[in-house]
Design goal:
By secondary structure, this protein is an alpha/beta fold. The protein is 39% helix and 13% strand. An 8-stranded parallel barrel has the order 3-4-5-6-7-10-11-12, surrounded by 7 helices. It has a two-stranded antiparallel ribbon with strand order 1-2. Helix 1 links the parallel strand 3 and strand 4.
Length: 396
């Protein structure tokens, strides 16, 4: 066993002055981790719940959408916002705004987006290749944040021949970030295959002054504990594994407390989430209620919850007709009529309801600006490409 796997068993995680009861972070996911879903996950468990990715330029321009996305409910006592940007000055201005107006308690920076529309312009997972630009963005953001902790989320690199995570992590550590999260895939991997947890272990062995968080293929509480044991990371970031399963955060909290000796394993086993259909229906309905509050529009909320239908009812005997009906309702009353046709006593289906969810995609050659890989320095043509990189996409 390497020294990196000898870790503190205490479940608490410190990110700067923020103390988390359990070392669990909800990954930012565009169109998913709005305040409604964050509140729902918080009702089931503990940890840090991060906003959807927000572009720094849109925030500085105070677009209606960006201002809505940074709004937190009063119950969100640690207001966590993920920013994405490609220009040090704009990132500095965005962070300055959040701090001056007391809009955040934690700021995460995204350098992991693998979406072609972003990497083609040099943003997301492509950006750490330009070392000076990457370092400058982080330095400016950390300085502007003052006492507010700033963290970084990144991928291994562009592809297996162009890895960036170790150099980038060293730069981030030197710039004063409070934690570093690694999605153990490259941009070329997208979400396909199996995450390379050995990279998380290598990162933990390399960076020793700040917490290292692991991300990738955490589908259960057991996966989270196994990641920590195998890599020595200080905490986990959970993304697709919680889609349609907000109760996963309760299982995660219990698992880490068992590991720390704060909870009896038998008690945790008895309370492990094995929801019957009635529990799933109640969570689905609650999620929709929170979306109504978030959007202020019942019809909008009913449209937004449609993408969650398959995730919530994965593995349960809910037929195509019911699923299609749920994707067509325009009010809570209509939704209730459809949900009333389901037998809530139907038991948890076991493995059929577990495992991967969300689109995995397939490995692909990353889209990059012309000659991007020729140098770690940023040339004038590449600076022009970056102007179009601030698009609103998944956090990676």
């Amino acid at each position: 066993m390497s020294s990196a796997t000898t870790v503190n068993l205490a479940p608490k995680l410190h990110i700067g002055p923020i103390e988390l009861d359990v070392p669990v972070v909800l990954a930012p996911m565009a169109g998913i981790t709005n305040t409604a879903y964050r509140r729902l996950c918080r009702e089931f468990g503990a940890g840090l719940y991060v906003s959807e990715m927000i572009t720094s330029r849109a925030l500085v321009e105070r677009t209606r959408e960006s201002m809505r996305l940074i709004t937190h409910h009063e119950s969100e006592t640690t207001r966590s916002i993920q920013l994405y940007g490609v220009d040090p000055a704009t990132m500095r201005e965005a962070v300055t705004m959040l701090v001056a107006e007391n809009l955040a308690d934690h700021i995460d920076m995204n350098f992991g987006c693998p979406v072609a529309k972003v990497t083609r312009k040099g943003g997301g997972a492509a950006l750490p290749w330009k070392r000076d630009l990457f370092r400058s963005i982080i330095e400016e953001s950390v300085k502007a944040a003052g006492d507010i902790p700033v963290t970084v989320k990144m991928r291994k690199g562009i592809d297996s021949d162009h890895l960036t995570y170790l150099e980038a992590a060293k730069a981030a550590e030197g710039a004063g970030v409070a934690a570093i999260a690694l999605h153990a895939r490259t941009a070329a991997d997208f979400y396909s295959g199996q995450a390379d947890w050995s990279a998380i272990r290598t990162l933990k062995e390399t960076i020793t002054s700040v917490p290292i968080l692991g991300n990738g293929d955490i589908w259960s509480a057991e996966d989270a504990i196994r990641m920590v044991e195998e890599t020595g990371c200080d905490g986990v970031v959970v993304g697709r594994g919680c889609l349609g399963r907000p109760w996963l955060f309760g299982d995660l909290a219990s698992a880490f407390r068992v590991r720390a000796g704060e909870l009896d394993a038998d008690t945790a086993a008895r309370t492990k989430a094995q929801p019957d259909l009635g529990v799933v229906v109640a969570a689905f309905r609650r999620h929709t209620e929170l979306l109504v509050e978030f959007f202020g529009d019942e019809n909008h909320a009913c449209r937004d919850i449609r993408k969650h239908v398959a995730w919530y009812f994965k593995g349960y005997p809910v037929g195509h007709e019911v699923r299609a009906s749920l994707s067509m309702v325009s009010s809570l009353a209509e939704m209730d009529d459809v949900l009333a046709t389901l037998d809530g006593s139907l038991p948890y289906p076991g493995a059929e309801a577990e495992g991967p969810r969300g689109r995995a995609g397939s490995p692909k050659r990353p889209a990059l600006p012309e000659r991007w890989l020729d140098s770690h320095d940023l040339g004038l043509p590449e600076r022009a490409e970056l102007v179009g990189a601030e698009l609103h996409h998944s956090g990676g």
